[in-house]
Amino acid sequence: MDSINIPLAEIQGILGHENRKTTEGYIHTTRGKSIEVMRAFEKAQQSDF
Fold first, then answer.
1. What global pTM score does this model have?
2. Which of 5, 22, 35, 45 is the most exposed place for a label (fewest CB within 10 A)?
3. How many domains does the chain have?
4. Angle in degrees, CA 12, 8, 19, rounded to 5
5. What's the alpha-carbon Rg for the chain, to the nearest Å?
6. Phi and psi (nearest 5°) for 17?
């Protein structure tokens, strides 16, 4: 989401993080792996439905 310029506040809300720093930490650690991370996230979202 960060790689397609979705605002941090929106990412925070989607992921359910109460603290902005948590979201920032995930974004920092996933840069460079954005495609892999997004596929895993989409797969997890689909299994919930």
1. 0.57
2. 5
3. 1
4. 40
5. 11
6. -80, 130
C-beta separation of 12 from 20 below 8 A: yes
pLDDT digits (tens, 9 = 90+) for 3-46: 788 999 999 999 999 999 999 888 876 666 767 777 888 888 88
Which pair of structure tokens corresponds to residue 41? 């996230």
| Euclidean distance between CA atoms 49 and 47, whole angstroms | 5
Confidence band of 1 (pLDDT split at 50, 70, 90): confident
Query: What CA–CA distance (Å, rounded) separates 28 from 24?
Result: 6
Domain extent, residue 19, equals: 2-47
